Amino acid sequence: MQTIRQLDLLRTGIAELRAEGARIALVPTMGALHAGHMALIEAAKRPGTRVVASIFVNPKQFGPDEDLARYPRKEQADSRMLAAAGCDLLWMPPVEVMYPEGFATNISVSGVSDGLDGAARPGHFDGVATVVAKLLNQVRPDIAWFGEKDFQQLAVIRRMVADLDFGIEIAGIPTQREDDGLALSSRNVYLDEDERARAVALPRALGVAARAIGKGGDAETALAAARASLAAAGFELDYLTLVDAGTLAEGGDPARPRRLLAAARMGSTRLIDNVAVDPIEQG
């Protein structure tokens, strides 16, 4: 696996992979890799495809009171994991390469970025859209892979890529989970033993509510019960919302796919999760 930190060398490395007649798949990450990231690498490894992973802790998507400074950085361990998983090239640029002196461009995707984490973390999705646009332009892949755990992020990226005619396929894979159901996340390492034990209340509450709503139960009743169970577990809720799976409009049409999306804090750690709500057959 090649590890590249400068843009001119990246262009050369990508050209060499293309010269083999290969398609290019990109898996963007912020490092601190876990089994969820490895599932993305596995999904990207298709016949005739070369896999490029990126590691870049993007300062533009962190707010002033968020955890940029303490976000876990494990470059050597991450590199070993990617090489063992069959990644062909690791793009790991420093901040000054991604945002050189004088950098002044910001990408904002309205609509799908306005509520939920967009409201809770002002400017976050501008930072996400800007860095992903840069990564897509730098690597120029045929396909890029993202996890559905960051469901709103995936919607923002898909909207941006469609609106700006990138001509790149954006693929998602289901949320990868621990054996007890907690969504895999680089931030799980912040949880102490007691918080980790209680954190499983988040996927459990979402699952119970999603099943109730999918069977035709009253959505507000199901959401209220989920909020109460999360509060009892010690979570401080940012939001728990039922949305259309495509547009992220609140409520959504029961005949269409919907999602329950949540963000909540356990101690000082902010966790997000989401589950699908099956459409209700109209009869």
Please describe what this structure looks like.
This protein is an alpha/beta fold and 283 residues long. It has 2 domains: 2-173, Rossmann fold (3-Layer(aba) Sandwich), CATH 3.40.50.620; 186-277, Pantoate-beta-alanine ligase, C-terminal domain (Pantoate--beta-alanine Ligase, Chain: A,domain 2, 2-Layer Sandwich), CATH 3.30.1300. It is 38% helix and 20% strand. It has 10 helices and 9 strands. It has helices spanning 7-19, 35-44, 75-85, 95-98, 117-120, 124-139, 151-163, 193-199, 201-214, 219-233, and strands at residues 2-4, 23-29, 49-55, 89-91, 143-147, 169-173, 235-244, 258-266, 269-277. A 6-stranded parallel beta sheet has the order 1-4-3-2-5-6, with helices on both faces. Helix 6 (124-139) crosses helix 7 (151-163) and helix 9 packs antiparallel against helix 10 (219-233). The longest helix has 16 residues, at 124-139. It is globular, with a radius of gyration of 19 Å.
Features:
283 residues, alpha/beta, Rossmann fold, Pantoate--beta-alanine Ligase, Chain: A,domain 2, 3-stranded antiparallel sheet, 38% helix
